[in-house]
Each structure stands twice: as structure tokens, then as C-alpha cells.
Amino acid sequence: MRTARARVALMAAALMLLSACGQPEYTYVRDRDGTTYFKVPSSFAQLNARPIDLYLSGTQPGSLAEAERARRVWSVAFDQSAEPDVTHLLGSADPFLYATVHQLTDEQRDSVSLDQLRDFLFPVTERVRQLYEARAAASGRQPLFSGFEEISDQVLTLDRGARGVRVRFNYRIGTEIQTFDHTAILDEQGDTVSVMLIGCQAICFRARAAEFDKIADSFRLLRLPG
Prior knowledge:
By secondary structure, the chain is α+β, with helices and mostly antiparallel strands.
């Protein structure tokens, strides 16, 4: 009996081990060219990021501008909601992640600054926030983003001359305050900008800030051979 029980216990332990091995803790992500890397918990569902790209860029589906942008831009989105949806980028009680890598044009390469890295997705610096508010007022519409609050702003000095910023901030969107963690990196050649944005409602972000730090800390440039 003791031998039989021992065998059952060993089999149960083996099955638990196999089950654990079949459920990786993280999804490991690289961009299209394999130069930007990060990992996200496997509980996040991957989404088609194209609607977000169209929203952020203002380009029309099927246009030449969109085709050119698709050639130069790689993007991915992840949502931890029970009902994943790209609209959760702008408001969700659950974490949402958007990452993008842009191959810069000659004109863009000549003008990239740390402030432009801060404003790469949303208005963050005072100058761009004022422009955003002025355009909203001129259009007669209420701005989607209001009540900006800066939480932290860190300049990143990286290997081989790459540089970047990591900014954490609040915005009121609708009736809720959303917290965003934005990391943007310009590679040492000045050719690409890699961006990661993590967001959820402020109460969610405060409770899970340490988890989001691990995700953001995994966001880095890779050095390919050659």
C-alpha cells in the first residue's frame, strides 16, 4: 500500500510539473527586425495593434500614407482584461500594453530630442499639452485628455550611445484617471525609436506598480551579430 501511494504521489508531482512547464510565465516579444525585446506575462492576450496605429497616426485605412507607415512601423498590443479590446488603451481597470518601433525618416532623424521622445504617443511636455488644448478649443470639442499629472520623469543613458526617457503620468479620460508608464528609446544610430506604453486606471496602477516595473525593465534594444 505504501509503495502504491508513493507511486501515486510521484505521478501527481510529475503531472503538476508537466502542467507548469506547459504554461510559461511570460510571452517573449521581438519586433519585426529583431532589434527590440521585452517580455509580458502570459496572462496578457495579444491583439491586432492596427486600429491603435491608425488612431495615433491619424492616417486613413488603405491610404498611401498608411502603406508607407506600415513599412516603417511595427506595433503590438496586449490586454489583461477578461474581454480584451484595443479601446482599453484609453481606459481600463485592467493592464494594457502597447509597443511600437519606428524606422525614422531622414527629416525625423535630424530633429529627435528627449522631449519628442516624451511626446511620441501622447502629449506629455508642457509645450505639446498647450498645443493639444489649443487645437481642441479651436475645434470646439472637449479634449479627450485632461488633468495631466507628472509622477516621474527619468532620462535613460544606455549602452553604445542609445538614449531615452521613461515617464510616468496621469490623465483624466472620461470619468476615470488613467496612469501611463511610457518608455521611449532612440537607438545609437539615430535610426529607430522603440516605445512601450503600459496603462490602466490609477488605482490598478498603484496596486501593481512593481509588476509593471518588471515589464518596463525588460524593454531593451538587442545587438544583432555583424
